[in-house]
Amino acid sequence: SVSINRSPTDETYRWKSIRLCYLTFFISSLGFSICLSSIWPYLQQVDTESNEAFLGWVVAAFSLGQLIASPILGLLFNVMKQARIPILISLVISLFGSALYAYVHIFPTNRRFVLLVARFVIGLGAGNGAVIRSFVSGATTVAERTEVMAKVSICQSLGFIVGPAVQAVFTLLGYPGPVHGAALQINMYTSAGLLSFLMAIGNIVLIAVFFKEFFFETDTMDRSLANPASINSDAAEQLQHQQTDSQTKPDTLAALICIFTFCVLFFNFSTLETSYFIVNGTASDDSAGLPIRVEDHSGGCSPALPWCYRVPAVKLPLAILAIAVHSVGYPIAIVLAPSVLTKILGQIRQGVWMGLLTGGGSLARCIGPIVVSLLFSGYGPQASFLTSSGLVLLSLIAVVAFAKRLVPFDVYRMRRMRLGGYGTYAEI
């Protein structure tokens, strides 16, 4: 990006807006996770015709909504050239979905479908992740971006962690809870939707009042016309190459590798998550716990699973090592994938690309549990984990094979310029 002299006020507004993005991402993730631990008993409570198969659709509805909304909101960000309106639209959608989740009881019939729609609508609102990542990538320098994108991912993960803890506190309300009138019910189930509703209102107010647009490339060009003295010599040289930059498109293959890696990471996570839920949902009380049969451990195997005593047990130290390695590698990779992507794309409006990234992760969360549950239930953990490992290996091969192309846009552009814009993939 071009270096300009920004006033302290500009910097204050810029970082205030970035921190609001942190908060918005946290609230969005909290809206996803706060209901997970209670959604099955809530579904049974509001509609006795609900079954485990329908529960799967309710859980997947959030990711499906996010899959649809992410590229649309990302495109809207590109077209409108601002983040405020798309974010506010997503928050209003989340507001409606949270209210619907808390007021399922007012519908006389088919309440399970109302709950399904509520989760889908909340997922639509969560599509703002594409807009947030796009804004952050445009409002930061290359040097700042990795740290800021890491904090975005941390806020997302923090929302996933805090959600179940908040729901655990809400269990103290019990059912039917302290308030159980016809117009309003406050209990251990509806409190999650009501809290999400209130947080969405607060988030809307903060974005509407304090959020300011900031985009390095656009801001630089506008200021350069008004005050040429504010641009240093290096920046002036970069401005001379503006037309060349606009004609050089980002490396599409490198960007797709980052998106594929991001999707694989979510699929890999769903392997552990889904395997755990299958075991704890089918195993007897004395065998629930781990998603694999471990030597010297009573858990992880149920007679309901045909492969239970056919698949060799995993040694406990090996199981601990595998989980430890995954716990270290996953958070690092999940931060680096979007960070590298933003640098590959450079200082462009990244709404559509971030929509593809977020939507791809949502797609992995949709199909991952289905594929893993079929493999795990029918053939055991070896089939599901080998499938996940194969995808990780494929992603690793792609990253290693094209490592020289996973570079910031400025580096890619200079290589293209040295080759006259006609270099082959191998040369680049």
Written description of the protein model:
This is MFS domain-containing protein. Keywords: Membrane, Transmembrane, Transmembrane helix, Transport. The chain crosses the membrane at residues 20-42, 54-78, 85-107, 113-136, 157-176, 188-211, 253-272, 316-341, 353-379, 385-407. One of its GO terms (cellular component) is lysosomal membrane. There is one protein chain. By secondary structure, the protein is mainly alpha-helical. It has two domains: 1-221, Growth Hormone, Chain: A; 250-428, no CATH class. Helix content is 71%, strand content 1%. It is built from 16 helices and two strands. It has helices at 8-33, 39-46, 52-80, 84-102, 111-125, 128-138, 142-170, 190-210, 216-226, 233-240, 242-247, 252-282, 316-345, 351-379, 381-401, 409-418; strands at 179-180, 185-186. Strands 1-2 form a two-stranded antiparallel sheet. The radius of gyration is 24 Å and the shape is globular. Residues 1-5, 218-246, 281-291, 295-299 and 422-427 have low confidence and may be disordered.
Distance separating the two termini: 22 Å
CATH architecture of the largest domain: Up-down Bundle
Q: How much helical structure, as a percent, in the residues? A: over 70%
Top CATH class of the largest domain: Mainly Alpha
What is the domain total for the residues? 2
